[in-house]
Design brief:
This protein is 23% helix and 40% strand. The protein contains three helices and nine strands. It has a five-stranded antiparallel sheet, with helices on one face. A hairpin with a 3-residue loop joins strand 1 and strand 2. Helix 1 runs parallel beside helix 2.
Length: 136
């Protein structure tokens, strides 16, 4: 099975007409970012340490990152899931301070995850809403 970084870059290469891939390498860590050409679409970020463990998430402060590095098959599925959500524009973010909430539309259902925020009464009214568009 290819490394997680190679899997991310292979998957991103298929989107070269709709997004660019940026790679920043440091001593033992690498950040690979999928940046869509559509300004209202969500990007995807992969942070890896020693090309083995790290996190993956949509490029949004309200997104809860997925921990990667324990199971190569599950990690590849998580990366594919984040990229699919971003490409298809199936996420809405609600920014509250340094975090917020992300709603994901999938199979007729909507799931919600919170990052650095609490769902206090009136949170939707106070939040900055971001509707992510599909890649085009």
């Amino acid at each position: 099975m290819p490394s997680l970084r190679a899997h991310f870059q292979d998957r991103s290469a298929s989107l070269s007409d709709r997004a660019t891939v940026e790679t920043v390498e440091q001593a033992r860590a690498v950040t690979v970012t999928l940046r869509p050409h559509t300004p209202t679409a969500a990007g995807v970020v992969l942070y890896l340490y020693d090309d083995e463990v790290g996190t993956g998430a949509r490029d949004d402060r309200a997104c809860v990152p997925a921990e990667l590095g324990n199971d190569p098959v599950a990690d590849a599925k998580a990366v594919d899931h984040f990229i699919s959500l971003a490409v298809e524009g199936r996420a809405t973010a609600f920014h509250l301070g340094r975090g917020g909430c992300v709603e994901i539309r999938e199979d007729g259902n909507t799931s919600r995850s919170w990052h650095n925020a609490w769902p206090w009464p009136g949170w939707r009214r106070r939040a900055e809403r971001v509707e992510y568009e599909p890649y085009s």
